[in-house]
Amino acid sequence: MESQLSIIDLILQAGFTVQLVMLTLLLASMLSWYMIVQRFIYFRNSREEMFQFEERFWSGIDLSQLYREGNERAADGQTILGMESIFRSGFKEFSRLAKQQEMDSEAVIEGSRRAMRVALSREEERLEKHLSFLASVGSTSPYIGLFGTVWGIMNSFRGLATTTQATLATVAPGISEALIATAMGLFAAIPAVLAYNRFASRMDMFVSRYDTFVDEFSSILYRQAYAVRARDKKAG
Question: Quick one: how far is CA 113 from the chain centroid?
Fold first, then answer.
């Protein structure tokens, strides 16, 4: 308990600049932890939703039925994200273009792929949310803490000019409070770096799975487009 009080006393007795550095690092650490928890929950939910949709998609269900189910959930106020959002964008564009008989199969598929690529880009932006902040905290916090340390030590040695006898007890408090800034910088940086690396790896996994789904779904739509055009020719 005494060590905790002594650290608090050192922080309270630190100079204004060092205290400002500590406050900045404390706020950065609190924000980064909030974003770490938020991203963890988001990635966990996205993973579960992706697996559930993949299981539903490859179960042999009619694609029109799968799209209608999404419409019903969207009408109930549920936000559809991830792989299902990509599916819905591609299928909606495919259904719209397939009705235009003057368009050939290649044009229909190309339009559907463009729509899915746009949806994939939006999903990638959602996955990247807050990651740049975590990267910034991880890369800059040690230097901010080091700045506070250098400033505090500089003030401690400047204070020696007004003393007649320089002893360790004279400079120890100033150096100690300055080193706390470095410790806080590392405390803010290390979790942010670890979380960024973890989430960046998960994001790459999601983007790879989404990209693979675009190719697989395009193949399915390709076959359906030719089947639709074949029926149109017979009907004509």
Answer: 25
Q: Do residues 133 and 31 touch, judged by C-beta distance below 8 A? A: yes
For 40-95, write each residue's pLDDT tens digit: 999 999 999 999 999 999 998 899 999 999 999 989 988 889 999 999 999 999 98
Number of domains in the chain: 1
Contact 46, 91 (CB under 8 A): no
Flag whether 4 is in a domain. no
- Domain range spanning residue 76? 13-235
Return d(Cα 146, Cα 86) in angstroms, integer. 46
Q: Does 98 map to a domain? A: yes
Q: Does position 204 have pLDDT exceeding 70, yes or no? A: yes
* pTM assigned to the model: 0.81
The amino acid present at 220, given as its one-letter code, is I
Q: Are 28 and 188 a contacting pair, CB within 8 Å?
A: yes
Residue in 125, 119, 115, 117 with CA at minimum distance from that of residue 42? 125
